Amino acid sequence: MAGIKGSGTLPGSYAVRVAPKQYLLQNKNLMWIQFSLGTDLHTVFQSYGNMPLVSISDEPDTLYRRLSVLVKGHDKAVLDSYEYFAVLAAEELGLSIEKVYEPPRKIERMTLLKSVHVYKKHRVQYEMRTYYRCLELKHLTGSTANVYLEYIQRNLPEGVAMEVKKTKIEKLPEHIQKPIWGTLPQVEETVNES
Amino acid sequence: MLPRLRGAWTPALLQCAANSTAVSKSRSESRGTRWRRREVPRHNRLLGIPRTKKMPVDQDWSNVYPVAASFKPSVVPLPIRMGYPMKKRAPPSKEGNLELIKIPNFLHLTPGAVKKHCAALKNFCTEWPTALDSDEKREQHFPVEIDTVDYVSAGPSIRNPKARVVTLRVKLSKLNLDDHAKKKLIKLVGERYSKDTDILTITTDRCPLRRQNYDYGIYLLTVLYHESWKTEKWESEKTDADMEEYIWENTCSQKNVLDTLLRIKAAEKISDVPREELLASEIVENYKNSVVLLKNEGETEDNMSKYKESVKKLLNLQGFQ
């Protein structure tokens, strides 16, 4: 397995699959242009030339135990549609969905004076509603997570915000495996003689 | 207001003349048939058949909406109505409806289009390693967990200062620590250690960048680990109040038990039994276990009954209930 030291027992390679960033962008633009000519998606790849789109590098992929995507918006219907889209995309890419739930909404209300000057008894009230939707995925590799998150975030609707909480799992650093005090050369302690 | 063009050949009229067979009347003809309505309305900018009428039923919808675009009533063939209805009327139709244009639409993300996108993106994804299918294997090989948060929102700036916070979590049982090192580390770390789950949580946000905070977190873990293995000179001054758990050796409880047993033996006039034998005997072991349980875990039904049994055996009071 590429790039991992001291873990020969782990079978299965998970080398990073890196998409050169510009390819992903240009694919989308190309899709738009090509569709106006009425051609199919598949011809985009062939007509772009013989450049490889996927390059595999040697560094080991990061592993995410959990990816928690929280979307916030003012309109519940928009979040419903977005959740349908995100869940469909996750299923198509073969990701395991842990759970999808709706945290309770928050309403911020403010009561302001209606008039510019005087008239304290006449006020006007505004409220700002924030609806939430949370989608939790488990067991992703770094490349898959990057691909999925980029796709999701490019298609984020207007007026919707997102927070992504990633839980990465890692090995213990090498310098923590054993205590070092036995192995260091003895340094003579100098005593302050005043 | 559009300017009135009497008899002038506007581009729209030219186009219409090219497409349709009906010819607009010239001035001489219209005088005779003055009250007959014109074949073509004068101020209509959008002449031509809307795209909805020209769509085949089996078309590819991703050709109509390949990218996110606003709602166009002449392109979407659905009879949608949206908005608050006036009295005794239906909600406003889709022509010229601002509500439909304002709301974000997902017409470019139909299930067919999403499946096509995902099929193209599948090449860039990697599989989760099949060897790491159980929790124990994951914890054994990858015990450290790093939590980071990314924020996406629209605004004047894409940066969010909360994004630099990094949380590091590790179980102490996975670290190579001996008894003294573990106790010292727990004392050093204080509130960041949770006894129920045996997880040490380090949250760093003092550096301006996320990578710096991550490095600082790893550095803190390293320093804690190595410091806890060291034994300083002043650690020998640890008092009973500092101890995390009750240790029975060298306590007055032990002395009392030995005293009592020796006196019992002296009363029965048995020769002096050496102290080590008394300590190692089962009765004293039982008593020691029950006292340690009581002190460490508190008073429960189980613990109290064990203590009662051990005291009865110690003092030979088996007859009592």
TrEMBL record, chain A:
<dbReference type="GO" id="GO:0003735">
    <property type="term" value="F:structural constituent of ribosome"/>
</dbReference>
<protein>
    <recommendedName>
        <fullName>Small ribosomal subunit protein uS10m</fullName>
    </recommendedName>
</protein>
<dbReference type="InterPro" id="IPR040055">
    <property type="entry name" value="Ribosomal_uS10m"/>
</dbReference>
<feature type="domain" description="Small ribosomal subunit protein uS10">
    <location>
        <begin position="68"/>
        <end position="165"/>
    </location>
</feature>
<comment type="similarity">
    <text>Belongs to the universal ribosomal protein uS10 family.</text>
</comment>
<dbReference type="GO" id="GO:0006412">
    <property type="term" value="P:translation"/>
</dbReference>
<keyword id="KW-0689">Ribosomal protein</keyword>
<keyword id="KW-0687">Ribonucleoprotein</keyword>
<dbReference type="InterPro" id="IPR036838">
    <property type="entry name" value="Ribosomal_uS10_dom_sf"/>
</dbReference>
<dbReference type="InterPro" id="IPR001848">
    <property type="entry name" value="Ribosomal_uS10"/>
</dbReference>
<keyword id="KW-0496">Mitochondrion</keyword>
<dbReference type="Pfam" id="PF00338">
    <property type="entry name" value="Ribosomal_S10"/>
</dbReference>
<dbReference type="GO" id="GO:0005763">
    <property type="term" value="C:mitochondrial small ribosomal subunit"/>
</dbReference>
<dbReference type="InterPro" id="IPR027486">
    <property type="entry name" value="Ribosomal_uS10_dom"/>
</dbReference>
TrEMBL record, chain B:
<dbReference type="GO" id="GO:0003735">
    <property type="term" value="F:structural constituent of ribosome"/>
</dbReference>
<keyword id="KW-0687">Ribonucleoprotein</keyword>
<dbReference type="GO" id="GO:0032543">
    <property type="term" value="P:mitochondrial translation"/>
</dbReference>
<dbReference type="InterPro" id="IPR039848">
    <property type="entry name" value="Ribosomal_mS35_mt"/>
</dbReference>
<dbReference type="Pfam" id="PF10213">
    <property type="entry name" value="MRP-S28"/>
</dbReference>
<keyword id="KW-0689">Ribosomal protein</keyword>
<dbReference type="GO" id="GO:0005763">
    <property type="term" value="C:mitochondrial small ribosomal subunit"/>
</dbReference>
<feature type="domain" description="Small ribosomal subunit protein mS35 mitochondrial conserved">
    <location>
        <begin position="159"/>
        <end position="231"/>
    </location>
</feature>
<dbReference type="InterPro" id="IPR019349">
    <property type="entry name" value="Ribosomal_mS35_mit"/>
</dbReference>
<protein>
    <submittedName>
        <fullName>28S ribosomal protein S35, mitochondrial</fullName>
    </submittedName>
</protein>
